[in-house]
Structures are given as structure tokens and as C-alpha cells.
Specification:
The structure holds 2 protein chains of 2 kinds. By secondary structure, chain A is α+β, with helices and mostly antiparallel strands. Chain A is built from 5 helices and 19 strands. Chain B is an all-alpha fold. Chain B is built from 10 helices and no strands. The chains are: A alpha+beta, B mainly alpha. Chains A and B meet through α2, β2, β3, β4 and β13 of A and α7, α8, α9 and α10 of B.
Chain lengths: ~325, ~170
């Protein structure tokens, strides 16, 4: 109940901010809050290049926390369920728990320093109103101050504060990827039946998460010398990875809207996968390379040039 | 003049100097042949697979010296058939030539070559499903989770066109 009152307050803030052109950080906080606290279910279309697919999403909050299910409606069966910091993914005909380092739900996740970084790195512009999936939305454009990150255009539901459509644009103003709800049910209309389903009850390891499960912060000694301006380190941890023998060091940098993850691991003996190079999936760019007996992976919602620049400036600064 | 041409080829002239010198080269046949010879020398020194040499003068000279055949039209039918076959072959070769040239000047070719040379792939390559664990690990900490909620996990479950065809 308390959260709900807080949410209404934030939503009010959102509308006031939008009207008065006040701080964008409050507006984003309201959007993040809405995304975490609202019950909703719907169908959205995701598109990048000439790839288009439809997915169903459902997000329910009850006394046990947030439940969220994302399932692909076309192509091979794909599904992700998230609950209380745990993540399951459909693999080889069953739901498998994915290594997750989050610990319990952190909320709000948008950290104050990320929010202040946002206005340093992006110009925010109001682009008027539009209708998405039958809902009135307010359109905002985040334009980066350099070419090392993408522009974002978001359509925010005026009533709920939910993000109903989002587009990522490159420096030539071409759409890199976008997704848009085509159907949305909010509040008590949202589909919540699946929470009580056998699929959820039988999730392996459900609820077996201790508070100290989250990996402790570490100082691995790895540094990136040429981060784009405004990217600040938000996380550094050492984590096990599915299919890897040795733990992997992960460093996460964020400018408030996008994040770049750097993974460093020793080269596995007999690992013949030398697929060095750049690849992409929508706005995500992925670059990996073997340097001095280490494999570097860099992934982020940033242009190819940025992941390359970051990878090429990784350095070990420890003892 | 020769000295200036050499400086131009080394990129040592300012833009306006280079412009006026290029104009002079175009107007003076001697300077033009110097320009061509210097490029030839440069090409030979760099040892490329093929060397550019201006053959136009020699080819037209050969054509001028070619005797015109004024033979009587005996066995006309056979000859006509042969001419037809030859011209058909020639036009096929022509088509082949044009196709080959199109391939050569396709603008996409050069960046791709450059990418290969630096051991990098073109960006239109899709992230392989094997990398999904890294994407999942990244997604956990991305601020897009807050903005887009679970929809941002679409990156980790979207399927590649290759998977679809399997």
C-alpha cells in the first residue's frame, strides 16, 4: 500500500514534470517505478533490421514480490520468467535457472548517480503526444551529445507511466531497433493466472535464494582506459558462467540509459572457438577478442565503435 | 615541374597548389607522361599483382596498321553461321565482362575486404546463440531493465534467422 501511494506520488511527479519540463530524472524515476509496481500484461512487437517478432509479457506484483514472464509467440519456443532476483530460461525443453547475481529485488535500480549522468550525456526533448496500443502517450527524445551512444525515443503512457513504445536510433536517425505494445491490460485486468500454474510452482530452485547470494563487490584490477564520457562503473563482480570452467570478471559501466559490460576470463585450454569479432542483435553490439591469454567480451546497447574502443582499452592494473 | 609532380604524389603540396598543378598536368602532354611514368615506377616498387600501363596509344597504332581484308564472299552461308556463332560468343563475353566489372566496382567490396584484413567481421553478423549467457549477464545490470521492464530481456530470447530455418 505504501508503495502504491508512493507510486501515485511519482506518477503525479511524472505528469507535472512533463508539463513543466522539470527534471528528467524525476520523470525517469516515475517510469522505472511504474515498470516495477504496476500489474500489466500485453503483447508487443520487436523489430530490428528485417527481423520482426511478437512476444507476450506479463508482470504481476504480489506479497511475494514481482513475477514476470516473457514468451516469444513465433519461431522456436522461448521463455523467460523472473521472480525476486531469480531468472529462469527455457532451454532444452525445460525451464533452467540462470546464474543471477542480483540478490533480492533492488528497487529502484536507477541509481541517483546514473540519473545525474543522464542529463550530462543526453539532451532531452519533449516530442508531443501520440497513441500507442490505444493509450495516450507522451513522447520523449534522448539525444546523445556524442556519437558513442544511440538516441532513444520513448512513448510513455500518460495514465500509468509505463513505457509502451521505445525506439533506438543511430547518428543518422535510422531506427536500430524498436518495440511497441499492440495490446496492453493494466491493473486487475492483467493476466495473473500463470503465477499459480504448475510451470511456476515447479521452477527449479524457486524461492531458494538467500540474501547474501549476491556476489560481493570486488576490485579485480581490470580497468578500461577509454570509456566514453559519462560512463561510470556501476558494478564489478566475479561470477560463475554457464559453460565456463573459470569464474568470469564482469565490470558494468552505465551512462544512465545504456550499459556496457566487460567480461574478462582466462583462455580455456582446448578452447578452439576463435570467433573473434563484432556481431550485433538490434541495439546490442558484441565484440570479443583474445588478448594475452585472456578472452575479452564487451557487450552493450551502444554503437559498434564504442564496444571496439572499450575492448581495445582494457588493461590489467592490479598486482 | 618533375620535382613538383613528385611532391604532389607524396602529398606534400597544399590543396590550392595541388589543384593548379593538376590543371597544368592535364594541359601539358609531357607533364602528363611524367605523371604516368612516376605512377608506374611507384606501382612497380610496391610490387602489385598487376601494373597499370597506358596501352591506348599502342592499341590504336596496331589497329591503324591492320590490313583491311577485301575477300570475295565465297561460301557465304557457312561463313554467316560462323560469324553469328562468333558474335554470340563475343556478346556473352561482353555480358561476362560487364558482370565482372560490376563486381569490381561494387562499393560494398572494399570495406568488407578492409574488415577481413583487420581480422574483423562486418557488423551485420548476428550475435551467436552461444553468447547468450553474456547477454543475460549483461541484461541483469542494464538500466534498460528499469525503463523497459522485462521487455528489455527480448535481447536474450530473440531468435536468429538461422535458427528459424532449422
Amino acid at each position: 500500500m505504501k508503495a502504491w501511494v508512493g507510486f501515485c506520488g511519482l506518477l503525479l511527479t511524472f505528469n507535472v514534470c512533463a508539463a513543466g519540463g522539470q527534471s528528467t530524472s524525476d520523470m525517469l524515476k516515475a517510469i522505472a517505478f511504474a515498470g516495477h509496481q504496476t500489474d500489466y500484461s500485453g503483447v508487443f512487437v520487436y523489430q530490428y533490421g528485417n527481423h520482426v517478432e511478437t512476444s507476450r509479457i506479463s508482470h504481476i506484483v504480489d506479497a511475494n514480490g514481482e513475477y514476470e514472464k516473457l514468451e516469444g509467440l513465433d519461431g522456436p519456443k522461448r521463455e523467460i520468467i523472473r521472480h525476486h532476483g531469480q531468472v529462469w530460461c527455457y532451454r532444452q525443453n525445460q525451464m533452467v535457472q540462470v546464474e543471477s547475481q542480483q540478490g533480492k529485488d533492488k528497487f529502484p535500480m536507477l541509481l541517483p548517480n546514473q540519473l545525474s549522468a543522464l542529463s550530462e550525456n543526453y539532451k532531452v526533448r519533449e516530442m508531443g503526444t501520440d497513441r500507442v496500443a490505444g493509450h495516450e502517450t507522451r513522447v520523449l527524445l534522448f539525444q546523445p551529445r556524442d556519437k558513442l551512444r544511440y538516441s532513444r525515443k520513448i512513448w510513455v503512457d500518460k495514465d500509468t507511466g509505463l513505457l509502451l513504445k521505445s525506439a533506438v536510433l543511430n547518428d543518422k536517425n535510422q531506427i536500430v531497433e524498436q518495440y511497441a505494445f499492440t495490446e496492453l491490460k493494466v491493473g486487475k485486468d492483467a493476466d495473473r493466472s500463470w503465477i499459480a500454474s504448475d510451470e511456476v510452482k515447479n521452477l527449479p530452485g524457486l524461492g531458494q535464494m538467500s540474501a547474501d547470494k549476491a556476489a560481493p563487490a570486488v576490485n579485480s584490477g581490470w580497468v578500461v582506459d577509454e570509456l566514453p564520457a559519462g560512463f561510470k562503473k556501476t558494478t564489478e563482480l566475479i561470477r560463475p558462467m554457464h559453460g565456463n570452467h573459470a569464474p568470469v570478471t564482469q565490470l558494468v559501466y552505465s551512462d544512465g540509459l545504456s550499459a556496457i559490460s566487460v567480461f574478462v576470463e582466462p583462455v580455456n585450454a582446448g578452447d578452439e572457438d576463435e570467433n573473434e569479432g563484432l556481431s550485433s542483435r538490434g541495439a546490442l553490439n558484441f565484440y570479443h577478442k583474445v588478448v594475452d591469454n585472456h578472452v575479452y567480451h564487451v557487450v552493450g546497447e551502444v554503437p559498434p565503435i564504442t564496444v571496439i574502443q572499450v575492448l581495445n582499452s582494457i588493461r590489467y592494473n592490479g598486482k | 615541374m618533375k620535382h613538383e609532380i613528385s611532391a604532389l604524389m607524396d602529398g606534400e603540396l597544399f590543396e590550392d597548389e595541388a589543384d593548379s598543378l593538376l590543371g597544368q598536368i592535364r594541359r601539358t602532354p609531357d607533364a602528363y607522361s611524367d605523371w604516368a611514368i612516376y605512377h608506374l615506377i611507384g606501382d612497380v616498387l610496391r610490387q602489385p599483382d598487376s601494373i597499370h600501363r597506358d596501352l591506348t596509344a599502342r592499341v590504336s597504332e596496331c589497329l591503324r596498321n591492320e590490313a583491311t581484308v577485301l575477300a570475295p564472299r565465297s561460301r557465304a552461308l557457312k561463313q554467316r553461321a560462323r560469324v553469328f556463332a562468333l558474335s554470340a560468343a563475343a556478346s556473352l563475353m561482353g555480358v561476362g565482362m560487364v558482370a565482372w566489372m560490376t563486381l569490381q566496382i561494387n562499393p560494398e567490396t572494399s570495406p568488407q575486404l578492409a574488415m577481413q584484413q583487420s581480422g574483423m567481421r562486418p557488423v551485420n553478423l548476428q550475435i551467436q546463440p552461444a553468447a547468450n549467457d553474456y547477454l543475460m549477464a549483461h541484461q541483469e545490470f542494464s538500466p534498460s531493465n528499469d525503463m523497459n521492464g522485462g521487455a528489455s530481456y527480448i535481447h536474450t530470447v530473440t531468435y536468429s534467422p538461422e535458427e528459424k530455418s532449422q
